[in-house]
Design a protein that fits this description.
The protein has about 190 residues and is α/β, with parallel strands linked by helices. It is built from five helices and five strands.
């Protein structure tokens, strides 16, 4: 009987040891697996601002539009739109600030929006003629473009829609490769 009892004890001991190892493996797998599977939150376009709730003399202001670094900024009480724009890295070269009162006082939780100038859609377009929007007089300021060629550009645009590329301008009658080379650096879409 002792032999049988000893064999049974060994058998149970093996099962207990095996069950303990399985539990240990599951525990390790779960703890390692859950750390590796943590989802990363996508980056927010809004800059995180740590705000001292005791500081009543500070405002949070959201600055967006044609500024270098749109986001939420903490400004001192009594700040103006000008201060918010400076905090956001200043206006871009193609901003339309004529309609924005830079001297206006700010309030907590206010949004400041700086619009884009519709005639200047990028810094590269500064000083260039938009061939999709320019009128006859503006087109005539281009080298080699007189009243007749300007009218042909407008007629082509009306017949075919907006130019898809600057090179499409070569398809306008009487405006060949040589004229295009002279004015290509002075136009934009």
């Amino acid at each position: 009987m002792d032999k049988w009892k000893c064999a049974m004890e060994r058998k149970y001991f093996k099962y207990i040891l095996l069950a303990g190892m399985v539990l240990l493996c599951l525990l390790l797998f779960y703890s390692c697996g859950s750390e590796g599977k943590k989802e990363k939150k996508p980056e927010s376009p809004v800059k995180q601002v740590e705000r001292d709730t005791a500081a009543k003399d500070q405002y949070l202001v959201y600055v967006s539009g044609a500024v270098a670094a749109p986001g939420v900024y903490e400004l001192l009480e009594g700040s103006h739109v000008f201060d918010a724009v400076k905090a956001a890295g200043d206006v871009l070269p193609y901003a339309d600030v004529d309609g924005v009162n830079m001297a206006e006082a700010l309030h907590d939780c206010e949004k400041v929006y700086i619009p884009l100038d519709p005639n200047k859609t990028s810094p590269d377009a500064l000083g260039k003629i938009n061939i999709n929007k320019a009128g006859r007089d503006e087109l005539q300021t281009l080298p080699g473009v007189g009243i007749k060629t300007a009218e042909k550009i407008i007629a082509y645009r009306e017949a075919h829609g907006s130019f898809k590329s600057k090179e499409e301008l070569k398809e306008v009658p009487t405006l060949g490769e040589k004229k295009y080379e002279k004015l290509s650096s002075k136009i934009t879409l």
